[in-house]
Every structure is written in structure tokens, then in C-alpha cells.
Structure prediction request, 409 residues.
Amino acid sequence: MEQDADVLIAGGGLNGPALALALAQGGLRVTVIDSRPAADRAEAGFDGRAYALAIASKRLLQAVGVWDRVAGNSQPMRKIKASDGHAGAGASPFHLAFDADEIEEGPMGFMLEDRFLYAAFLAAMAEEPGITLISGETVVAQETGPQGVTVTLASGRRLAGRLLVGCDGRGSGVAARAGIRRQGWGYGQTALVTAIAHEKDHDGTAHQFFMPSGPLAILPLPGGHHSSIVWSETDARAAEIQALDDAGYLAALRPRFGDFLGQISLAGARFTYPLTLSLAERFVADRVALVGDAAHGVHPIAGQGLNLGLRDVGALAEVVILARRRGEDIGNAVVLEEYQRWRRFDSTALALGMDGVNRLFSNDNPLLRLGRDLGMGLVNALPGLRRGFIRQAAGLQGELPRLLAGKPI
Prediction:
């Protein structure tokens, strides 16, 4: 069976290019199939959509040659504050406050806009001879056999490889065609996402304000006077707010946001996303592996979606590259099972943990409110416990793939 590439990657968002770069730098030939035209992604303007990248994720981006391209557009997160309360009534006196000075690695993470990150991936892939990017195409069929996997694109073109990786999101066609089912549920919540300008400097501090209808995350962007917000409301209320004009939207936001950053105004486009939990029952099938949202779609309460995906990238790249060096078939079930053992438990545990936190905080039960406030106050008062939470938020806990630990494969 003549191979067009060693690895075929369906999905060109962020995890797909990251995996392609890691594999190509390990000596494999990779083809990335992206449904959107590259020019559409690369020419995006400011819209406020941004990611909270943990330290470990930054290390992976550094290892694959992307971080230096975006570092100048990133915003270090030096502090994280979490509090509980009601819109317009202020926060509870019990809260959590994390400071980067409590760990040796520096900032706990970095905020980076989607437009800069994708453009950097695109430039890095263009310079890597082992990567072929096919944009504006989708995979519509796949067949696996003893020697490899073949995919058919919407145009009718066929490509063959040893391994097919689904980086194609929660509605993954790769997973569905491989017979991998999903389990999950909705939260009855919708995330409202936009960017705001504010009068006072955010000082590199990320805020998470828990309210009965859902959390509000205020995430610092470069320059000190812009932040990205992810604001969760019940589905019905979110639809009402999204339908308002900008003045009405701001009027709904202000009681929740407060005045700690002075006057605020809208500074980006407005988006909504339904909030659900979606977990693949398996992360692998015959010559197929799933990465990122194709494997696990999680609540954005801790901003861990992309960080989880990059952990998948680091683990799969390591498993596949080392298998190739041993002379093994990289699509072999034994090789793929190693990846699944590494990532499935960690991903599922974190997804269910975030689910539990959302359920604990997204209610107005007075007993639960008292318990969670006392819990936050206790963690905040114990330096050792607080340091553990900081390292978890920075992505430094657990069995890290080499790329996320800052080591070459």
C-alpha cells in the first residue's frame, strides 16, 4: 500500500497543527486536512477570542517552534483570583488568590489570542518540509486495513497513511466513522464570549467569579486595558442577552462585572457557545486516534480545553515517534493502546472534576454556598495546599509528556 504520509490528521484548528509539527520534527511525514481555507484563518482580525495557556502548554509550543512567534503578543498571568457571590451584591469575603511568586517556574500561564496562535502554526507548518497542508477540504470516508488507512475527501481525492488522527472537534466525523460513541450531557448553560476595554490596568490578573447562573471569567489581554470574558448564563437568559444591542449587553454585564476595573466598554465581537460535557468512550480504534475535543469536550470553567488537547498532542507524538524509532508499525493497536492508557483516565478525571465544580458553584443552595466559601477560605489560608492548586493550574502535575516537561522526544 503506497502511503501519501505516515500520519493523516483530520482537523486544522490548533491541536492538529501542533501534532503535525511535533511528528514532523520527529521524522514522520504528515498531512493535515483542514476544512477551512488557510487564508480565512490567517487573516482574522481582533475579536477577543483567546486561550489561557498553562506553563506546560507554553513549553510544548516552544518545543515545536511556535512560541517565539507569538510570545510578543501574549499576556503573562501572574495572579488568579476566584470568588463566589451574586450579581450586583459583590463577592463573598472567602476567596482564592494564587500568585505566580509562589512557584519557581514564573507566570502560571499566558493569555494568547486565537488569531495570533493560528497564524503562527500556519507559518511554522509552511517551513516544515515533512508537513503537507490541504485546506478547504473535509474527510468524508475512511477505510482501515492491515497495512494502513485510506481517507476520501469531499473532492473525491484519496489519501493513504499508517495512522489517522481525529482533531476534528466534538462532532468528530473520524470518531463516528470508527464506531466510537460519545457520552455526555448539557448544562443548560450558554457561554457568552467577548472582549472588553476597561479604565484600570488588570495587572496580569485573571478573575473567576462564581454566580448561581454560572461563572464569569475575566482574562487579561496584552496592554493592560483589555480583557477577554467568558460569561455563563442559563440558556434562556443567554439568548436574551445575546439578542440585546451593545448598550443592553453592557447593562446586563456591569452588575456581574463590578467596578474594580473602572468603566468598561465592548471591544470585540460577541459569540455564544452551548456548554456541554462530551467524552468519547474510547480514544483509539483500528488505526485511529482522537485528540482534543474529538476525545473530550469539557466545561470552560478552568480554561483547560486547549491545555488538555496539547497534553494529548504531547503524549501521542511521544508514543508514535518512539514506536517509529523501534521499527514498529505506528498504527498498531499496541502502540495506540499506550496512548489511550496515558491520556484517557487523566482527561476523564479532569473533565468530571470541572463538571463537579460547575455543579457545586452554579446554584444558590445556602448550605452548599457556605461549604464552598469555607473551602476556598481554607485553601487560601494553607500555603502548601494553595501551592498544589497553583501547580495544577499551571499544568505541572501528573505524568507529563516530554514536550510539556520541556524535554525533547
Remarks:
- The radius of gyration is 21 Å.
- The longest helix spans residues 333-361.
- The first strand starts at residue 7 and ends at 10.
- The chain has a mean pLDDT of 86.
